[in-house]
Amino acid sequence: MTVSVLWFRRDLRLSDHPALLAALDAGTSVVPVFVLDPRLIDVDRPRTRRLVASVRALAAELEGRLVVRAGDPVEVIPALAHEVGAETVHVTRETTPFGRRRDAAVDAALGRDGRRLVATGTPYAAGPGVVVTRAGAPYRVFTPFARAWRQHGSPLPAMPPLRIPWFAGDVGGVALPAASADQGGPGDRDRARPDGDAAGEVPARRRWLDFLADGGLGHYDRDRDRPDLDATSRMSIPLKYGEIHPRTLLADIAAHPEGRSDGAATFVTELIWREFYADVLWHRPDSAWQDLRPELSRMAHDSGTATDRLVSAWREGRTGYPIVDAGMRQLLAEGWMHNRLRMVTASFLTKDLHVWWPVGARHFLDHLVDGDLASNNHGWQWVAGTGTDAAPYFRVLNPIRQAHRFDPLGDYVRRWVPELAHVEGAAVHEPWNDPNGYGHGYPTRIVDHDDERREALMRYELARR
User: Are residues 433 and 331 in the same domain?
Assistant: First the structure.
């Protein structure tokens, strides 16, 4: 009997799983393992709680066969392979800077004992580094990347195995953190949890099929920017943990009656943005926390005690701009924020408060259940004007106009800002114009947007000289 090890990471599912198929080809039985790496596991973070919930769902699907070990994978994985007599350890290829360094170290440690780390597939439809120009160079701009990505095409989902012979031997492990911590979001437990936040492959698949059945694909292009509507798929969370693969989504879209609609095309474009940012990080790992484009390196950013107070107000949803505060409060309560609000709140921090984008990017990663390094940090740079396809620095999102356009009746703001629940209709976006707008404790504006927009433009011009 031969044994192989399958090391789960960002692929917490059993369907459409090339690394699982490779492990089955390499051994007559498979040892499934998840490693609680102390460098990544922080029980105070929503991402950790959601990760543990997803691992627990996978363990239940495996009926207790999942081996959970704790420690540095460089030590844990070779020890487990030696213990069960496995010559190969199978993984989904990692693409982040940390993951690539870790896997290289694990492969070297396995090699010292005559074993191998075998990487198959990636968390993306087209693995980072695959889509390149005719000259073999990486794309720097989204639109040509998207065109090339579509021409490259996506492979079909991997076929499910007929049976999985899990290892039947006695392999010890450790317990996952207590179930009481297995929550997706960090805050208000009285609010209904979003359906897309339920952990595991089965809930992810159910949410996706419900989205398709309810017509979400057909009107996605019209409604996806409306935070007052439940018009998004919420697939960013399952995609983050690999509970579903983008190949599966793309195959379902292609087979759907509305698969050729404008809504479907817009949805696929959003998936391509995810692929693009992963590709950028693959080629430029330094861009995780540094400006991808140096043109604005001389930009003056604010800091100090007074700025710290403004940043605290932004983090807590007390800026006095209702749409900004609603988004930040949703983040704290659910561990998730509508994508349109991610742009609005990021613009407010970088353009109205003149704070360097990593400050906001770190806050988002601390609280977002779907926090993804590539998408999050490059999205922040897009807003700040230092990233790919950078929105020019002089494009400053007006929070009041954004609110009227994308929350036209004010329902989203009233949901998350109860101090303004008494203000009817779109008037909720400008409480300073309502005689009783501040009657229930809502804070006044911490800055004047028009003044700060002019300041941002002046700094932009100075930085360009």
Answer: yes
Q: How many CB atoms lie within 10 A of CB 181?
A: 13
Same domain, 110 and 150: no
Residues 152, 35: one domain? no
Counting the structural domains of the chain, the total is: 3
Q: In 3D, which of 344, 271, 270 has the Cα closest to residue 314?
A: 344
109 falls within a domain: yes
Tens place of pLDDT per residue across the chain (465 aa): 799 999 999 999 999 999 999 999 998 999 999 999 999 988 889 999 999 999 999 999 999 999 999 999 999 999 999 999 999 999 999 999 999 999 999 999 999 999 999 999 999 999 999 999 999 999 999 999 999 999 999 899 999 898 999 999 889 999 998 754 444 443 333 333 444 468 999 999 999 999 999 999 999 999 999 999 999 999 999 999 999 999 999 999 999 999 999 999 999 999 999 999 999 999 999 999 999 988 888 889 999 999 999 999 999 999 999 999 999 999 999 999 999 999 999 999 999 999 999 999 999 999 999 999 999 999 999 999 888 876 677 789 999 999 999 999 999 999 999 999 999 999 999 999 999 999 999 999 999 999 999 999 999 889 887
The Cα–Cα gap between 348 and 326 comes to 13
CA distance 292 to 244: 30
Sheet of 116-119, strand order: 67-70, 29-36, 3-8, 88-91, 116-119
Q: Are residues 231 and 372 in the same domain?
A: no
Model-level pTM? 0.93
Q: How far apart are CA 359 and CA 383, in angstroms?
A: 13
CATH code for the domain of 208:
1.25.40.80
> Are 115 and 137 in a shared domain?
no
